[in-house]
TrEMBL record:
The modification N6-(pyridoxal phosphate)lysine is found at K645. Belongs to the glycogen phosphorylase family. One of its GO terms (molecular function) is glycogen phosphorylase activity. Its EC number is 2.4.1.1. Its cofactor is pyridoxal 5'-phosphate. CDD domains: GT35_Glycogen_Phosphorylase (cd04300). One of its GO terms (cellular component) is cytoplasm. Keywords: Allosteric enzyme, Carbohydrate metabolism, Glycosyltransferase, Pyridoxal phosphate, Transferase. InterPro entries: Glycg_phsphrylas (IPR011833), Glyco_trans_35 (IPR000811), Pyridoxal_P_attach_site (IPR035090). This is Alpha-1,4 glucan phosphorylase. It is an enzyme of class 2 (transferase). It comes from the Bacteria. It comes from Primorskyibacter sedentarius. Allosteric enzyme that catalyzes the rate-limiting step in glycogen catabolism, the phosphorolytic cleavage of glycogen to produce glucose-1-phosphate, and plays a central role in maintaining cellular and organismal glucose homeostasis. Phosphorylase is an important allosteric enzyme in carbohydrate metabolism. Enzymes from different sources differ in their regulatory mechanisms and in their natural substrates. However, all known phosphorylases share catalytic and structural properties.
Length: 803
């Protein structure tokens, strides 16, 4: 069968007719009165119609070919907007632009009317979204499984420079990209008791499916993202209602509604809340029941499961999959224990995304035993079996200190465990899973993260994407390795000029947006120096703002010293309960208001921090960036994926040897990367000196001035004591080694200045960054997972020859 022949060209006229049909008959709107929302919905339905056919065909081909399927279980999918991405992958963007113009709207306005689907916190959720797109592009038969949160990540605004959270409500308006599947529903139990080889839950809810098609590049394949919404098993307890106990009567409904109500707003921190454990089990059990149901419609022997099914756990959040799969195989399907354990292990894979101790999930045995009593028994038995089979040291185990260690559970129940960058995978072997790695050599492997070039270059950066395609053709979009053929043009002055012009177009657009939305005027010819990501001490936004203060101070002292004009751009949210991160946000905003009103430096330095950073803001900012800030303490950022997006878009990186920065530097060449700071090994050694911060500050005039200005209240004149705690921590509790890295960072920034003042040299390096970014496509990552973990093949192999 031939997926590629599905790409029937759709003319503008045909698309217009389809849009008008939907406007009239789906939305019941008269064109004369249709709003931008109405047109967006009509266009979305028309585009969605174009996905359905390849989607069905992909599903049929998977069944007919009896292909192995991949199931990606994730508590987060940070999708962003869907309409533009779908139009691009279907090749319908130009037709849609014509339609919009004809009906008197600007396509951009229609695209931007769509709310972001923010079902994730940061890198882990966005990675899942890139993976879905790449699996569809490659033709890897797959499902994503997640939760249909009514409220995604909170909205952020600033009041007096401080973060204020408000609920996000992406589902208030109808969501055109989903298909409700009320027939795909499973009962999910909680609590109650384990009874001889089984479980009698005391509570239950129903998980009901909603499907979103995910279309790959050129519409050749489409997979499904299946999100579960919670519904009550019984609407309400009529007996209790009739006896007047209205609150108790509504209990089943209340439990169900809270389960899929909101996304936990933590990124790399673990909270240990009962509702979260219930959400994790809700997703996992619904997915596994669905997977087994589908498998059994095709095959009768559950022993074949690992040959037809690969289940990937995105971090430990769905790690209850091990015990739940064993429970379903034994208690429900009557399989014998040891076989069930083996089959589960051969089916499951686990991706570790962090080494931070505060992120490692562990549940008290009491809570686990209470919420999932049967699973607690199964976990203990897995642990006993493992202890007996491996003669492991006493301190290794799933159940330790009356807690269930989810990392150990995920490891022991998986046939492959992967880290997300070369350095991170190495550290996984040496640190968190040191002992388990010795017991199970070869189980830990690396799969360096990647990002989809469709969204992060073609969609986000039309001027650059067009320039690249004009030079080397369009092949890079589906095969990013081809972008290396751009390399010789780094030496071509005309090409460098065009490359610079594309960047400038994006910088002008960003400047206008900043002017309109924030009322701050920024100069598109200044260097745009950007740090956008979650706010966290290990990511060191405070290092960046300290350097900004030092720079400002030195610019004032010596305004004619040949500084490169800069705009420092920050973006990112803090977890609502993370006080230190919130203090850093406050400081950035305070520093911004002082610097931005300084007449002495007005042509040299500005600081902007647009609120509510999300996927759509990233699409706006990354293409306009000159300098990418990747400055985490070495050994702490597992990979980073923003770093890759910047590289693709021709930004230069200033960064530490952390996460995927290491590989970015290798790929683009060390001469095209601004390196600073301690290495991961040096960080560990450095911390042994209890005076590391004090020594570094005492040796650095710059650092002393910065802390002095902050502590004097220069940035908080109405409340001069505001940052005493922050400054005290800088001296005495500098766990992330800001002081130790400060001078090295400041010096590297001055090298950045010098290069920026030589536009030709800068542009050559920028072109080389783009040209050498081919490795960082998530298509490459997915091919790695397919070969090394899932043992699956593309369903599109050989398809090309049929077109
Ligand atoms: C993030 C990691 O912090 C980041 O380094 C990585 O690039 C991303 O996952 C994708 O792998 N929550 N978020 C992460 O880890 C956890 C846990």
């Amino acid at each position: 069968m031939n997926m590629t022949t599905n790409m029937r060209p759709v003319s503008s006229a045909a698309l217009k007719q389809a849009v008008e049909q939907h406007l009239t008959y789906t939305l019941g709107k008269d064109a004369g009165h249709a709003s931008v929302y109405d047109w967006r919905m009509a266009l979305s339905f028309a585009i969605r119609d174009c996905i359905v056919e390849p989607w069905f065909r992909a599903t049929r081909s998977t069944y007919e070919g009896q292909r192995k399927r991949v199931y990606y279980l994730s508590m987060e999918f940070l999708i962003g907007r869907t309409l533009e991405d779908a139009m691009i992958n279907l090749g319908l963007l130009e037709a849609a632009r014509d339609v919009a113009n004809e009906v008197g709207f600007d396509l951009r306005e229609i695209i931007e009317d769509e709310p972001d689907a923010a079902l994730g916190n940061g890198g882990l959720g966005r990675l899942a979204a890139c993976f879905l797109e790449s699996m569809s592009t490659i033709g890897c038969p797959a499902f994503g499984y997640g939760i249909r949160y009514e409220h995604g990540l909170f909205r952020q605004r600033f009041e007096g420079g401080q973060q204020v959270e408000t609920p996000e409500d992406w589902l208030t308006l109808p969501h055109p990209w989903e298909f409700a599947r009320p027939e795909s529903a499973y009962e999910i139990g909680f609590k109650g008791e384990a009874v001889d080889g089984g479980w009698r839950p005391a509570e239950s809810v129903v998980a009901s499916a909603y499907d979103m098609p995910v279309i790959g590049w050129q519409g050749r394949w489409a997979n499904t993202l299946r999100l579960w919404g919670a519904k009550p098993t019984t609407l309400f307890d009529l007996e209790r209602f009739n006896s007047g106990d209205y609150a108790a009567a509504a209990e089943p409904e209340a439990l169900a509604r809270t389960l899929s109500r909101v996304l936990y707003p933590d990124d790399t921190t673990y909270q240990g809340k009962e509702l979260r454990l219930k959400q994790e089990f809700f997703l996992t059990s619904a997915a596994l029941q669905d997977i087994l149901r589908r498998f059994r419609t095709e095959y009768d022997d559950l022993a074949k499961l690992p040959t037809k099914v690969a289940i990937q756990m995105n971090d430990t959040h769905p790690a209850i999959a091990g015990p739940e799969l064993i429970r379903l195989l034994t208690d429900v399907h009557g399989m014998e224990w040891s076989q069930a354990q083996e089959i589960a292990r051969a089916t499951l894979g686990y991706t570790n995304h962090t080494l931070l101790p505060e992120a490692l999930e562990r549940w008290s045995t009491w809570l686990m035993g209470n919420v999932l009593p049967r699973h607690m028994q199964i976990i203990e038995r897995i642990d006993d079996d493992h202890r007996r089979a491996t003669k492991r040291p006493a301190h290794v185990g799933i159940v330790r200190n009356n807690e269930v260690q989810m990392g150990e559970l995920a490891f022991i129940m998986s046939h492959k465990v992967n880290g997300v960058s070369a350095l991170h995978s190495d550290l996984v072997k040496k640190t968190v899973f040191h002992d388990l790695n010795e017991i199970h050599p070869g189980r830990i492997i690396n799969q360096t993260n990647g990002v989809t070039p469709r969204r992060w270059l073609k969609l986000a950066n039309p001027p650059l994407a067009t320039l690249i395609s004009d030079k080397i053709g369009e092949g890079w979009i589906g095969d990013l390795e081809q972008i290396k053929t751009l390399e010789p043009f780094a030496k071509d002055a005309d090409f460098r000029r065009d490359f610079r012009a594309a960047k400038r177009t994006n910088k002008v657009a960003l400047s206008n947006w900043v002017g309109e939305t924030m009322g701050v005027k920024i100069d598109p010819d200044a260097m745009f120096d950007v740090q956008i990501k979650r706010i966290h001490e290990y990511k060191r936004q405070h290092l960046n703002i300290f350097e900004t203060i030092a720079l400002w101070h030195n610019m004032r002292e010596n305004p004619n010293a040949g500084w490169a004009p800069r705009v420092k751009i920050f973006g990112g949210k803090s977890a609502p309960g993370y006080a230190v991160a919130k203090e850093i946000i406050h400081l950035i905003n305070d520093v911004a208001s002082v610097i931005n009103s300084d007449p002495v430096t007005k042509d040299l330095l500005k600081v902007v921090y647009p609120p509510n950073y999300n996927v759509s803001m990233a699409e706006r900012v990354i293409p306009a960036t000159d300098l990418s800030e990747q400055i985490s303490t070495a050994g702490k950022e597992a990979s980073g994926t923003g770093n890759m997006k910047f590289t693709m878009n021709g930004a230069l990186t200033i960064g530490t040897l952390d996460g995927a920065n290491v590989e970015i530097r290798e790929q683009v060449g060390p001469e095209n990367f601004f390196l600073f700071g301690l290495t991961a090994d040096e960080v560990v050694k450095h911390r042994r000196n209890v005076r590391h911060a004090r020594d570094a500050i005492e040796a650095s005039q710059n650092m002393q001035s910065v802390l002095q200005m902050i502590v004097e209240g220069r940035f908080s004149p109405s409340d001069p004591d505001r940052y005493h705690g922050l400054v005290d921590r800088a001296w005495n509790h500098d766990h992330y080694l800001v002081a130790a890295d400060f001078d090295s960072y400041y010096d590297a920034q001055r090298k950045v200045d010098a290069l920026y003042l030589d536009p030709d040299a800068w542009e050559e390096q920028a072109v080389l960054n783009t040209a050498r970014s081919g490795f960082f496509s998530s298509d490459r990552t997915i091919r790695g997972y397919m070969a090394d973990i899932w043992e699956t093949e593309s369903a599109l192999v050989g398809e090309e020859s049929l077109t």
